[in-house]
Amino acid sequence: MDYTAGNSTGIEKTPTDTLAQLVREYYREAEEAKRQKIEEWNNASDYYNAVYPEQVGPALSSAKKYEIFIQLTKRLTDNARAQLLADLLKAGEIPFAITLPQYQGDDPQQERKKIREESARRMEAKIRDIFQKTDYLTTLESIIGDLTLLGTGITKNPVLKKIDYPVFTSPNGTDPNLYKIESRMESELVPTSIRVSPRHIFPSPGAKNVDECDYIIHKSVLTARQLTDLGFSDYGYDIKAIQQALKYKKRNSDDGFRWDDTEDPNKEQENSHHTVTKKFELLEFWGKVSVDQLAGYIPEIQQQDGKYFLSPEEEAPDLTREAEGHTDGKDLTPLTEYLNVVVSVVGEKTIRAAISPLENKLPFNFAYWRRNPDSIWGDGIAFSLKDYQRLMNIFYAQIIEGKSISAKPQVIKRENSFLGDDTTLEGGKQWIVRGNKPLQDALTFFSVPDVTDGLINMIQLIERESTLSTISPVGMGESARYQTQTARGMMLLNENQKKDIQSVIRSLSSLITNDVKGIYHWLMADSDDPLIKGDYNAQCTGYLDYMHRTVYKSQLLEMSQIIAQNPAYLQGTKVQKVLRQLFDATGLTPDDFTYNEQEFKKIQESQMQSQLQMQQSMIQMQTQLQMQMEEFKALLKEKQDASADERKRITEERLVDKKAGRILRNNPIDNESILQQEQQAREIEQSIIQEEQQMAQMEELEDQKILEESLERVN
Prior knowledge:
The protein contains 17 helices and 15 strands.
């Protein structure tokens, strides 16, 4: 295809770019195979952002009319994202480790092993520093957002990223009392991982995973300035080819360039075909291409005697090398029929072509929400909830429509009953009735019954089923109507939830492992620091840590229940340490909720001191009560003895009077008991108090009666 075909400007024709045509043909095939998935993702974005499509069916037309959109997809997707981040990350740290291989052979020198362990630790610290500089945690959050909503999260690794940071130095010869600081900007290229939208990845049709892909095309949409900046970068882009692509765009605005319909529609929904600013479509092809098609695009490929060779100073790690002869004093390596290359195309022009530095590996890592074994793409939450989301909006629209119809009265107007045609109902309106007909004969009102209450149960069923379709927490507490009511049902739901979480975390851990390995291999080949190099294992520990926390937490909960049900076990158990381990297993910081050993020791000492004080006060109270009892007993005995002596004296006197023949008229012995006298005195005192209270009540009643009589006389 000529760049000036059909152009009447008279500019000379540019030779046909066969490599660009090949890449664009691959792109058209991959895009056609992916079209159905793109439509599914567009619908998922609409559900998440509460956007109705322009054309809706009759069932959803009422919901769109009332502007109702229940964001079921957004709520459950955000819950799943938060839960995945909490389960995967611990204290906000990327879960990976650089360790020595399990089998290291017989190494009699223990010191050498320590040096290798220190090198592995340095390598891990270097990778963590790169992750922190390139904000890999935010990248991971975006990936989790993609795989929860769309079903697939993708990273590109390794990618060189330029980091600018200021360096502050103090000039020499400066007075030490002065703090004059000069600053300059320095930059550093570091390998990292970036998030790639699934909309912009086009694998070869029919591939079920990355290993089966013959090629993968990464599409980017650039502005004219971004495309121009590529020519001045250090990545090997052809400046002349970029300039030709820019000129070709101006002459042929509708040929080879179009609006990016694979972009998230809600991200570009305000832009039209004519106002979009990113007009240049950059296709980055990763895959195998025959050597004869690469000739002329990669300068290192040379041809002699009908065979292709690679210059020895430009050898790539993924080529098959065989030592053969010498030609013109230079060693040449014969090439295989196909080479792994990376080709960048804008429009119909190749702006870069190079041999891939990653051997047979493609620089893309995939993670899934629900793995589809028959496709390279996974299924997200929006795919699982698409029917529930539609039904939820339909049912809510029907409820509102039913309530609005039943809330407004229906009016029957008799013909020719009113003067004028305005029969709208509104407050304060004046009606003129023809003749002398009563208003009841002119207007009749009736109400339509509300029959939408049965939809509430359907909405609750949808909420329950949609919740079970995700790894979000099951139910909403004991008060939720759709919460399972049996312990067996709850156990089964929790087990299924754990299995789903484990599957997703395993997939994310595999993606992180590949990202860490990519940076590790790059540092091994490119870094000048010998202290970090060695044969190590690079692996994400997120899945292992999650399984360990889950099992460990279950064991701690079971042990805590056993201890709580058997108080005798408390005497031999370090409850404080059990609580700290339990908080740590649930992802909470133990120091925020439990006491440390010193604080716990102080609390125990204060409790023991308060117990001793209580015991002392109890002893004092018992002693005082005992003394009071002794005093009471002594006083009682003294009164009893005094009463007995008085009776004895009176008895002896009466015996003497009886012998002398005197007449005995009364028996004073009955009243000589001191205790009886005190009892009688108390009874008399109580009776007097009661009489006084009765007299006061009677006087109050009389005063009230007199007051009422005086009021009656006044009235």
